Structure formats: C-alpha cells, structure tokens
Fold each of these.
Amino acid sequence: MIDLGISKMALIGAVALIVIGPEKLPRVARTVGTLLGKAQRYVSDVKAEVNRAMDLDELKKMKETVEEAGREVEKGIYTTKADFEKDWNDVTTGLDGSTSAADHAASGSAAWSPPPPEYRRPDKNWRLKRGATPQWYKARQGVRRQVQSGAARVARYRPRRPGA
C-alpha cells in the first residue's frame, strides 16, 4: 500500500495550504474526509459480502455432507431391517401351528397367548373436551363467551347518571 509517514503528510498539508488557500482548506479537508469515510464503508461492505459468500459456500458443503451421512444411515437401517426380517422369518417358521403340543412342552415354552390389542388413537379433540370449562362456571365467573365491539363495551361499562 501507500507509505504515508508524518513527514509526507506534513508535505502534502503544506502543498495543499499553498495551492488551495487557507479559506477553502477546511471545507476541502471535510470533503476529503467524507469521501475517505465513504470509501472505507464501501470496502468494508465488499469484505462483508465476500465473507458471507464464503460462509454460504461452507454451509452448502456442510449440508451436502450431512445429507450424505443421512443417506448412509438410511441405507444401513434398510439393510438391518431386511436382515432382521429374514432372521425373524427363519426363527418363526416352526411356530405357525404346525408343531405339536408335545414339542412345546418339551421345549419348556408356555401356552400360546393372543397378541395384545392394536393401538387405537383417541378421539380428535380429547384434550380439549377433557379440559373444557363448564358453561355454568363461565356464567358465574363472568367469562366472556362472545366477542363484543368497542362501542358495545363502552355502553355496557359507562357509569349511569344518577337521575336516569
């Protein structure tokens, strides 16, 4: 970059004082300072944009690696599932009822029991219904059940005149 030492700055200032003159020098110095500030802001904005672009590239690479790892895990799960189902079918082939009761007694297994009942999801709004407040309680406590306009609310809560 440019090497500007104190001696060079003093030389530039002296030349500017002679060329520009003492009356216009403060205004020119202010203008130069403003332009330098704008240039510095522009350079910092460009640097920030470049950094954001670099971070975005890094995030894209990280996303790709995470997606690849997810695909590998999913593939591993499917192969494990297939192996488990094959092993399960191999083990349970003799348990479909073709064996005799003597075989079960000899092997020490208990009598056959039916499978547990299937899961049945509760009704759609069971939490809402269970937690609903009864209407008589709302009426007693003064809970609003309907929307009321601003004018109706003012009319309802306006103090009554003593003579009316």
Amino acid sequence: MNAALAGALLAGTGVALGAFGAHALKASLSTAMLEVFETGVRYQMYSGLALLALAALPSQRRAPVWLLTGAVVFSVSLYALSLSGIKVLGAVTPIGGVLMLVGWVLAALDSRKPRTT
C-alpha cells in the first residue's frame, strides 16, 4: 500500500466533503446530523494527515492499512448515517474506530523498531 497516496486522497476528499457539508448540506440537514457528517470529515482528515506522516517512516509497514481501513469504515458510516437518517448505520462506526485504534497501536509498536542506516 502506498501510504502517501492514500493519505493525500483521504485528505483531499476530506477537504471536498467538508466544503460540501458546509455549503450544500447546511440547509438540508439538522444541526445534529450536520455535526455527525462533520465528525466523519474530521476523522478522515486526521487519518489522511497521519498516513502522510507515516509514509515518511520506513518502519511503518502495518499501521497504514489499518488506519486507512478504519478511517473509511468510520467516516463512510457517519456520512451514510447523516445523509440517510438510518440509525443502524451508527452501529458500524465503532468498528472503524477500533480499526483505527489498532493502526495507532501498530504505529507505536513499529516505531520502537531499531533504525537501519
């Protein structure tokens, strides 16, 4: 997996979705559902930036896949919930959160590996 490419795509689409939410959805979603949408955007951006940073570290081979998968599951479930109002979609969101947490644990563990020069 190319973590830099994935990070750039996540961050770039996060900017686009954030603008979409702020401009196109503001009038059509309730305040609560707009906040749900914005939470998805925020975590998508965090993950995109994290992937860009991890891409610069050769020791980070495992974490990027988990962070990317988690961010997609987490954010897309929140986008779908906010746009559809189908509450059961909110049950998927914690799965994405757990996947991201696994990614962060792996990032921490892999950062302890000795550097090769």
Amino acid sequence: MGKITFYEDRSFQGRCYECSSDCPNLQTYFSRCNSIRVDSGSWMLYERPNYQGNQYLLRRGEYPDYQQWMDLSDSISSCLLIPQHSGTYRMKIYEREKFKGQMSEVTDNCLSLQDRFQLNEIQSLNVLEGCWVLYEMPSYRGRQYLLQPGEYRRYLDWGAANAKAGSLRRVMDFY
C-alpha cells in the first residue's frame, strides 16, 4: 500500500490531497501541485490526466518544490502506484519496431545502453518481469518512462515522442 500527499503550494502549504491508489485525474482535487510528500511506495506522476505526458518517478521522501522532481511546471494531473515486485527482473529490447532487429536481454540496471549494447534507440521492447524506468539519456537522466510487464511494439506505446534511450533502471532500486 502506498501513500502520497500533493500540496498546492511550496513547502507543504495550501490545500492538499492524500492518495493511496492510482488516480487518473487529480485535477478534480487541486489546480496545481508545488510540493509532494511520499510516505510509502514508489509513484509515477504524469503531467496530464489519464497517465499521459511527461512522467516523474518519486519514491519515499519529501519534495518541497516541483523542481525537486525535475518538473518544469506545477502541473501534475494523474498518478500511478507502482506495484512492488520481489522476483527477478527481465526484459527484451529491440532495435526495430515489432520486435525485429538486434535483440538484447536485460536483467539488471543499465547506466548506458550505448556502452553496453551499442544502442542509442530502442524501437520496441517486451517487459517479461518487474517494472522498469527507461531514461532518455545515460546515467538515469532526461525524460522517464514507466515500463510495466507487457509488450511495447513501438516507442509510442510507452509514451515517448521518439525512440531515444540512454539508460534503464529496475523500479525495486527506488524503494
């Protein structure tokens, strides 16, 4: 079970909304979000309703200012509690759409996809076990994309505007 509290103003001030499960439309409860307190669980926040737009992974801790979770604005419109996973982590990444081209299997964090697999782009992937976060740049920087178990036949399926990929991290490493 997770718990996250959103505050309209910085430093945990103003109106707040507490959440313990997925919420597809936070705009029902507040108009802006300038600080967040995560009491338990790991959460993916989305810039737009229905889990769309830029994504931001937050784990337990306090975020007194929206810039602390790498956001460029005070717009958080939906959130998803990431399920804990205690088993193994495994995914297959492909250089082309629809699981074609060079395939590599990943079972642990990857700081640089370029260094490890000679890939700057991932066109499709299949998450077999565990939840992962794909980063647009190496060293876990840039835009973030939550990858839950399932097939992603093209980069648009995980919400990216392009196939640029720099690093991968297992969500368990955020707890």
